[in-house]
Amino acid sequence: MSKVLFVFNGPIFGGAERHTFDLAQGLMTCGLTPLIFAMKAGPLAAPENVRMLQPLRPCSLKTRIYDLSDCIKLERPDIIITVNERPVLASFLARKLARSRAPIAAILHSTLLRSTKEKLLQLVYTPIINKVERVIYISANQRSYWLARSMKPKSEAIILNGIDTTRFSPLIRAQHRSSMRQSLGFSNDDIILGLSAVMRSEKNHIQAVRVLGKLRRKGIPVKLLLVGDGALRGEIEIYVHEQGLKEHVVFAGMQSDVRPYISAFDVGVICSISVETLSLSALEIMAMGVPMVMSDIGGASEIIDETTGRLFKPQDDEGFHDAFSSLLQKKVRESAGNSSRFKVEKHFDHSVMTKSYFENLSCLLG
């Protein structure tokens, strides 16, 4: 039985981290044995039956590279899967120290470089990424972005993100919708715009609040449901209060199971300004039969078309407003929701993703 060593930044709340956990469990069903090595400690527990190694106390990158080298020597993985750029660098150096020949498959979840620091670091990461055995992109748009920026991998693949379409389904939505809306204080006439994301700057929650205010001033009975938590929650709450929208915004906080809350959505939104390469949150919402409005970054155009939702330019409040307004009629929302479910089942199912990864890894294993 082949052993797969995942190396990622840490078990925190984020799409790349959820993807790693889901993929590790999926590959177990294919007969592979996964082990996860975290560069930093985090609050999330490892998936069932999957071992995860994380530091007991904060330590330097150099120390973790040596720790990873020792792990490679001890565990003797048949393949190393890295998740994003920093773990690629660490794994490349640790493999050399361990004198291992295990191939490295680098999964990239990032797209836009947000700061000068990120751009400078990429000058270090790109030559290393070009030396590993395979680069896996999670969207076609992402591949085009990186190939235009000196990425020239030895081999490559595009494997779209996938979710469990049995767990996220219209049936689950129907079971929870009425009771959840009632418990959150929503009426039957309220149109609920839902955003499920960690409260970080790139997720751009403030724009959703701004557009909510514009819609409310026009007399549209829309309310905003925010699922998630994070460092910026206090700032967002202050802004909501300043805009006089406290009665129309519900903060649900971090939830271990987001499905009951998604069930209350009429329209989902992702208004991120960076990082959103192929949103798992959007796929989960769509799988439950809810249409999406999304800022057109990363792989959003690979998820959303005219039948499943609407796209708008990042930070374009008018475009966001118009996108949501086009879904005000219930029949339009229901049609887009049905199309969303169909598209996710066909193109973004977890089993399809897992099979693609297994086939790609098998090629590297020989």
- What's the structural domain tally? 2
CATH class of the largest domain: Alpha Beta
Assembly type of the chains comes to single chain
The H-and-E topology, N to C, reads as EHEEHEHEHEHEHEHEHEHEHEHEHHH
Class computed from helices, strands and strand pairing:
alpha/beta
Could you give me the name of the CATH homologous superfamily of the largest domain? Glycogen Phosphorylase B
How widely separated are the two ends? 13 Å
Q: How are the strands ordered across the major sheet?
A: 3-2-1-4-5-6-7
Largest sheet: 7 strands, parallel
CATH architecture identity of the largest domain: 3-Layer(aba) Sandwich
What is the fold-level CATH name, i.e. the topology of the largest domain?
Rossmann fold
Structure described in brief:
This protein has 366 residues and is α/β, with parallel strands linked by helices. It contains 14 helices and 13 strands.
Identify the notable features of this structure and list them briefly:
single chain, 366 residues, alpha/beta, Rossmann fold, 2 domains, seven-stranded parallel β-sheet, six-stranded parallel β-sheet, 14 helices, 13 strands, 17% strand, elongated
What does this protein look like?
- Helices cover 44% and strands 17% of the residues.
- The strands form 2 sheets. A 7-stranded parallel β-sheet has the order 3-2-1-4-5-6-7, sandwiched between helices. Strands 10-9-8-11-12-13 form a 6-stranded parallel β-sheet, sandwiched between helices.
- The chain folds into 2 domains: 177 residues, Glycogen Phosphorylase B (Rossmann fold, 3-Layer(aba) Sandwich), CATH 3.40.50.2000; 178 residues, Rossmann fold.
- Helix 1 packs across helix 14, helix 3 crosses helix 4 and helix 7 packs across helix 12.
- It is α/β, with parallel strands linked by helices and 366 residues long.
- The protein has 14 helices and 13 strands.
